[in-house]
Design a protein that fits this description.
Helix content: 40-55%
Radius of gyration: 26 Å
Shape: globular
Number of helices: 12
Largest sheet: 8 strands, parallel, barrel
Order of helices and strands: HEHHEHEHEEEHEHEHHEEEHHEH
Length: 306
Amino acid sequence: MKRYFTLGFVILLALVIGFTACSTKTSSTEETADSIATVQAEPTSFGGLALYTVRDSMATDPKATLQAVADAGYAYVEAANYEEGKFYGMAPADFKAYLANLGLTAKSAHMGMVTMENADQLIADCKAAGIEYFVIPVPPMGMFTFNRETMTMGMKGTPADIAEILNTLGEKCKAAGLKLLYHNHNFEFMPGEDGTVLIDYLLENCNADVVNFQMDLFWVAKAGADPLAYFEKYPGRFKAWHVKDMNAEGNFAPVGTGSIDFKKILAAKAQSGMEFYMVEQDATFGLPPFEAINISHKGLAEIGFK
């Protein structure tokens, strides 16, 4: 009897051990699956790149350049070239399709060539390319000025003139399902001859329903203005940012290598209204542009951009 009890106990113990092992294995498998799902759910790419940064390469081999942009970890781009109905030599639908093949989208486009005569066509082509934001990079239609002797930018015409143009273009964009933004440099933050600060005038006189702004953080710093003060005074108006740093000489620098306090600015993201951002470096001063965009993308992650 004792022998049978012992044998029964051994069998029971084996069953318990087997059940426990099976449960442990099932639990471990489930945990592993959950871990894989979590890793897969985390985005592998983030942030945007203004293609003006790599404009020379885009001019010679746009497809290989876009592949390099995707490989650098960017999720979307801003176009800076449009000629004869094409973006970088590609028809709008083809440009959209090629980007999609790389896992990219064209979030915005700088359309400085816009006039009242071609506006409808440009807007239609942006829409066909999947572009959401139609960006005016400088005062359009012959209003922008640049003095090569002093290397300074400016504008001819009046603030009222440009506000009227932006409101008209903004209405056209809205009707087509796009959003219009105005991109600043430093001169918009400086008083004009009559004391008017252009950016303030535009913020106060452009219809917020159809005209908003892409704040270039470098140029705001260059003008000695405070982006946080603008976010507080005009909340929700800065739907996009251009993110580029400033080195000790006051020149463009990769993100995270200069003096601009991006963490402080990023903390006010909600107040600003920022919906997306673009790394841009107008000139890289001897640093290969592809190296600069890789440094900037790493800087974005360290700062907390996603």
